[in-house]
Design brief:
The chain has 30 helices and eight strands. It is of the alpha+beta class. Helix 3 packs parallel to helix 5 and helix 12 runs antiparallel to helix 13.
Length: 633
């Protein structure tokens, strides 16, 4: 009896050619990858095209265009994806021609989406009108919607395109098309959706999926002048069963709507989901009108969730009027009593609404903060104060000295925030700095690639003061940290990671077949206990929860960078991506999405997917601990 063959643990384990292609991708070697596009094996043609989607080199466009007629439909599909990732307008006409004759539905959908990434303004009209033979094709409808969404992200839209997108929201169209259409309306800037308000109001209340309702609710801020919009947003904020829709409704509320929606926003401060309550507090901070600061102080003192409370305290200071000093004292007392560095940081952020707190906040930052987190939040608060209209004119020169002190501090976050403020043209700092030498001294003490984000901020400010073009980012080469193929070949395709947090257990499925370098790095860091005790340092409601920073403030890194791996994956709910400061600068920080966030597709590496614990993800808050991560079968 023969012994059954044992399947390899992942696609790379038994195929050296796949490892070679992935290494060429990691090393950004376009010329070495091109010959694989003509290999007899469809597998290698497909993998080479996919590799070029990460390289994003327009020199590959002619070879990829030739592959649009490949005999294998899966090759044609990923070729369209790669062309879209390259975003080369030279591919536009070939993509348009191929859409009409492409027999495979999946490839057809990808071709249309790629068109949105590559189209010129002149070509947008053809994307807005499907050929007659595709008018009822569900794959083409989805592809058209995604294409118009991708074009909209690039600032390319038209009345015809918007009208078509609204049509694609119809309940008879597939979910994929409705999701893309809703996101196009929510994320494309400067749209006037007033003519479509009736349709949008209906979809926001009746679409069966939270993701479509949420995105359409967000888009209603662009139809704010329609009298019925505020009332519907108020109803959604109170009653929608999904917290993400309630949250989007609150975000769509504008200052002009304040009177008819404020009662719904007051009620949302005690929403059972903390993310909704936080967005309600942010609504008041941004849009309140005619309210005394005392009302926000009173509301804040009734709340237990510290982040919501601190945001209301910021509103109390902003609208404090004659009793601002008393409110400031109350906030400073709460700061002194708190033992949580993140709460203290948020209280400093609240004090950033009051120039009278300048000395208090400066003392929290200099000469040395009690924690890295407090230093970062404190420096950001000082900059926020300087942006206020009532910041004292006589204190502006002293603020410049504070920024110079921040640059010289040696702390990467304080340095980076201070440098960014110096080059902010709205602050008019250029005339106060006669030389950039102090910035160069600070820059030259940094260690690359670990301190890349601070280095970039300093370098951009040096260029600003010297009135020269900023140099390109000094991204570490693959040779500095190559893919550990020995490790990759031991990682099962179904490998899971149990992430134990102070809020509960989250389980990741690690996508080693799609992001071998990123997964290998995560596995290596996990095995050495790197993530044990780290915190969730960033939570943006209905966007991401982010952790893994060794500093705890988002400015930390390892001593190596990874190269971006842009596989054919999408940021749906529970996607796990690597944070970065730009392409090929990934390291140890990762984030989990709360809902579909397609504007991240093809821009940030996806290396895992949450397969259980999405309820825990929705409850994660800044300061929650990553107690441990364990690799499990």
């Amino acid at each position: 009896m023969s012994t059954p063959a044992v399947a390899p643990v992942n696609k790379f384990a038994a195929d050296s050619t796949l490892r070679r292609i992935a290494t060429m991708q990691d090393e950004r070697r376009t010329s070495a990858l091109l010959p694989y596009l003509s290999k007899p094996e469809a597998l290698y043609r497909r993998e080479a095209a996919l590799a070029l989607a990460s390289v994003q080199d327009k020199a590959a466009t002619p070879a990829l265009l030739a592959l649009l007629t490949d005999s294998d439909a899966s090759v044609r599909k990923v070729t369209a994806y790669a062309l879209g990732q390259t975003a080369d307008s030279a591919a536009e006409s070939a993509l348009q021609r191929r859409v009409i004759v492409e027999p495979d539905p999946a490839a057809r959908r990808y071709l249309l989406e790629a068109l949105g990434r590559c189209t010129t303004r002149a070509g947008l009209a053809s994307l807005s009108r499907l050929p007659a033979n595709l008018a009822s094709d569900t794959a083409a409808l989805a592809g058209q919607a995604w294409g118009l969404y991708r074009a909209g992200l690039r600032g390319l839209t038209s009345e015809e395109a918007v009208g078509r997108v609204v049509q694609l929201l119809a309940p008879t169209n597939p979910y994929d098309a409705r999701l893309a259409a809703a996101n196009m309306l929510a994320r494309t800037r400067s749209l006037n959706l007033t003519p479509y308000a009736a349709t949008l109001l209906g979809v926001a209340q009746t679409d069966p999926t939270y993701a479509v309702r949420s995105a359409v609710a967000a888009s209603l801020s662009k139809a704010a002048a329609v009298p019925s919009v505020p009332g519907v947003l108020a109803v959604l904020a109170r009653r929608d069963p999904d917290y993400r829709v309630r949250l989007s409704a609150l975000r769509a509320m504008t200052a002009a709507m304040y009177a008819p929606v404020k009662e719904a926003a007051w009620a949302a401060l005690t929403d059972p989901n903390d993310q909704v309550a936080l967005v309600a507090a942010e609504f008041f901070l941004a849009n309140a009108s005619g309210e005394p600061g005392t009302i926000f102080l009173e509301k804040a003192n009734q709340l237990t969730q510290w982040r919501v409370r601190a945001t209301l305290l910021a509103a109390a200071l902003k609208f404090g009027g004659p009793i601002r000093g008393a409110i400031r004292t109350a906030v400073q007392q709460r700061y002194a009593a708190s033992s949580d560095v993140y709460e203290k940081g948020y209280l400093l952020k609240a004090l950033g609404e009051d120039p009278g707190a300048y000395e208090f906040v400066e003392k929290a930052v200099f000469p040395k903060p009690t924690s890295l987190v407090i230093g970062t939040y404190g420096m950001e608060a000082l900059v926020s104060m300087r942006r206020l209209a009532d910041f004292p004119a006589e204190q502006k020169a002293a603020f410049a000295l504070t920024l110079q002190r921040g640059v010289a501090s040696g702390d990467v976050a304080i340095m980076g925030v201070a440098a960014e403020a110096i080059r902010d043209p709205k602050l008019g700092m250029r005339s106060l700095f006669v030389s950039s030498d102090f910035l160069k001294t600070a820059r030259d003490k940094l260690t690359l690639p670990r301190d890349l984000e601070a280095w970039e901020s300093l370098q951009q400010t040096i260029a600003y003061l010297d009135n020269v073009a900023a140099p390109s980012l000094p991204v570490a080469k693959a040779a500095a940290h190559p893919i550990d193929w020995t490790l990759v070949q031991t990682i099962p395709a179904g490998q899971r990671a149990a992430v134990r947090t102070s809020k509960g257990l989250i389980v990741f499925h690690l996508l080693v077949n799609d992001a071998p370098g990123s997964v290998a790095s995560f596995v290596a860091l996990t095995r050495e206990g790197f993530y044990k005790g780290k915190t969730i340092h960033r939570v943006v409601p209905n966007f991401v929860a982010q952790g893994g920073c060794p500093r705890g403030d988002g400015w930390g890194s390892t001593d190596y960078n990874l190269r971006s791996e842009f596989a054919d994956l999408r940021y749906g709910e529970g996607a796990v991506g690597l944070a970065s400061a730009g392409k090929d600068t990934e390291s140890c920080q990762w984030f989990i999405t709360h809902s579909p966030t397609p504007h991240l597709d093809g821009r940030y590496t996806i290396f895992a997917q949450v397969i259980s614990g999405t309820d825990v993800v929705s409850r994660l808050e800044i300061g929650d601990r990553i107690e441990n991560i364990e690799l499990v079968k």
